[in-house]
Amino acid sequence: MADPNPRILPYGMAALAEAAARITAGECVAVPTETVYGLAADAGNADAVAGIYAAKGRPSFNPLIVHVPDHAAAERLVVFDADARALAARFWPGPLTLVLPLRDGAPIASLVTAGLATLAIRVPRHRAMQALLAATGRPLAAPSANASNQLSPTRAAHVAQSLGTRVPLILDDGATEAGLESTIIAGRTILRPGPITAADLPFPALPYIKESAITAPGQLATHYAPRKPLRLDATEARPGEWLIGFGAVGGEDTLSATGDLREAAARLFDALHRADASDRAAIAVAPVPAEGLGVAINDRLARAAHR
Predict the structure, then answer these.
(1) Percentage of the chain with pLDDT > 90?
(2) What pTM, to 2 d.p., does this model score?
(3) 124, exposed or middle or buried, with CB in 10 Å at 0-12, 13-18, 19+?
């Protein structure tokens, strides 16, 4: 486990000023978005981006999402088609990432794209990330602020527990809203399910499938994983298990006692962090319907359980 005592500052002008100065100097900082906490660095600075990979222990073949303040900034980096413009107009700012062709000469370090000709890009809604984008004036690469393949962080304390002093500064603005990483779309294909579901889209999306080739962030088979073994579709706890319930299935914790999928998504990683810190040897999770947001929840659980 990482050193649990990194520098944490509450969101505000002083914290933003220090965070912007560190990013300008080529460092990375942890900052909340509406999805999860991200580990942000200047997307045009190859050394800074390398610092993200080093802090996370992330494979260099796994590309990063770049955050920009608005659609106009995105247009300067990638080439939009009509579908992408419709999605951006409807869901930005918000938890949607688009995978689009990188413009020739776009000032993005090649390490960000992992050598691909496309860039994963989004306009975040959260005030802290938007303020940091404004303060730095730079596009920010920002994967989740956790060690690679570990549970995604929805609180500053999760970042501290996972990365410790490998991240020099954490901006603390409370728990994140969505609790799941952004939906990723390439063309009309959902590459990673998330808070924006297929039913939300203005056109029929191609069925979500787990791809063998890495074409966007969040596609590794083992990802978002606790340290302890995880059993899915559990209706009761076995000896030595911490049971996370849902709906009528109770337990030591619950994603949503009322079966609310939005509440379950927001609580998912928080509940897994608590289970991983418990005195039990293993974790079990109750069945979650594979519909709407349940598709994204089950995707994260399947990757978390993969060994």
Answers:
(1) 78
(2) 0.86
(3) buried
Q: Phi, psi (5° rounding) for residue 66?
A: -105, 135
Q: Is the dihedral of CA 218, 266, 307, 287 positive or negative?
A: negative
In this structure, are residues 158 and 269 in contact, taking their beta carbons and an 8 Å threshold? yes
| Closest residue by Cα to residue 150 from 43, 304, 290 | 304
> 75-100 pLDDT, tens per residue?
999 999 999 999 999 999 999 999 99
Tens digits of residue pLDDT in 212-242: 565 666 666 566 789 999 999 999 999 999 9
User: What 8-state DSSP symbol labels residue 214?
Assistant: -
Q: How many CB atoms lie within 10 A of CB 151?
A: 27
Q: How many CB atoms lie within 10 A of CB 121?
A: 25
E strand or H helix that includes residue 241: strand 241-245
Cα 127 to chain centroid distance, Å, stands at 16
R_g over Cα of the chain: 18
